[in-house]
Inverse folding.
């Protein structure tokens, strides 16, 4: 489904690509302050489509709501696949998954955030005609800055579902005939495909500060700040900070009502951070992203 109005198409009665009732799944663990980590895949920590993380801030903590963004490291290894996280209760370790079960290549790099303000939410489907998902987290706050990551097994000891699709967020507003879904944030699939019963980690970074300075903002691509498969971010929060740990989520709306159906990543070059498409397709203008930047946690 590719339509000019995502919200209207999602709510007018047909099978849609979106999320509609996202329910909170328990009381997740919260970090006193955000922690930002980096990991690189290798033959030691990766088996097929699964990469196992080993860090004292993560190990044995299944209730963390991890946020994930791919990063292009010095080895310049692309991983052109939708990614998510899962918890392995047998080993007490968090893992990164290629959701389409493709093997994670050695040298692929990932940023992992333990956010300070977050929730774990899951979809419910009322019928095949009503599979749009919204969640009440940040209800009536259209300007909230949210990061989203799919979690394969949101309920411990259940295998969960893979989601081999790229996702984004959007705010429903009041532009439909279904008041139940007014003014709520949602997760949707960028390719228009249906959502199964799945879970998401949602982090609110609207008020997060590092050293007293807001560390999150909305970046919108234009003809002037795109080059090849990159959107070049020009912001004091990220400029000249090669060691920053940067996270991004595509957001439909914020003046940019367009899809972005490609796996994304971030990389640093020439004094600026860039958002890039993992499939090397041209980065279009008029794409909005929530960007959040952190110092690396020792």
């Amino acid at each position: 489904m590719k339509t000019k109005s995502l919200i209207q198409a999602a709510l007018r009665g047909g099978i849609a690509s979106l999320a509609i009732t996202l329910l909170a799944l328990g009381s997740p663990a919260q970090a006193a302050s955000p922690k930002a980590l980096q990991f690189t895949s290798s033959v030691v920590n990766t088996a097929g489509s699964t990469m196992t993380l080993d860090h004292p801030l993560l190990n044995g903590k299944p209730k963390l709501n991890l946020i994930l963004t791919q990063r292009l490291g010095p080895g310049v290894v692309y991983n052109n696949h939708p990614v998510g996280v899962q918890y392995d209760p047998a080993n007490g370790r968090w893992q990164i998954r290629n959701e389409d079960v493709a093997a994670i290549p050695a040298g692929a790099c990932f940023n992992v955030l333990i956010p300070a303000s977050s929730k774990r939410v899951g979809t419910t489907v009322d019928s095949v005609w009503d599979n749009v998902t919204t969640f009440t987290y940040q209800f009536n706050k259209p300007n909230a800055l949210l990061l989203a990551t799919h979690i394969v097994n949101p309920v411990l000891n259940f295998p969960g579902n893979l989601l081999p699709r790229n996702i984004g967020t959007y705010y429903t507003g009041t532009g439909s005939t279904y008041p139940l879904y007014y003014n709520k944030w949602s997760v949707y699939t960028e390719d228009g495909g249906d959502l199964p019963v799945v879970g998401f980690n949602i982090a609110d970074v609207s008020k997060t500060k590092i050293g007293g300075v807001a560390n999150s903002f909305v970046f919108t691509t234009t003809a002037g700040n795109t080059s090849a498969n990159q959107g070049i971010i020009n912001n004091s929060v990220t400029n000249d900070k090669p060691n920053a740990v940067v996270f991004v989520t595509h957001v439909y709306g914020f003046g940019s009502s367009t899809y972005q159906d490609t796996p994304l990543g971030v990389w640093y070059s020439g004094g600026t951070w860039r958002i890039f498409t993992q499939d090397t397709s041209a980065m279009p203008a008029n794409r909005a992203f929530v960007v959040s930047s952190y110092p690396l946690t020792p």
Notes: Helices lie at 6-11. The two ends are 44 Å apart (CA to CA). The longest strand covers residues 245-252. Residues 210-294 form one domain.
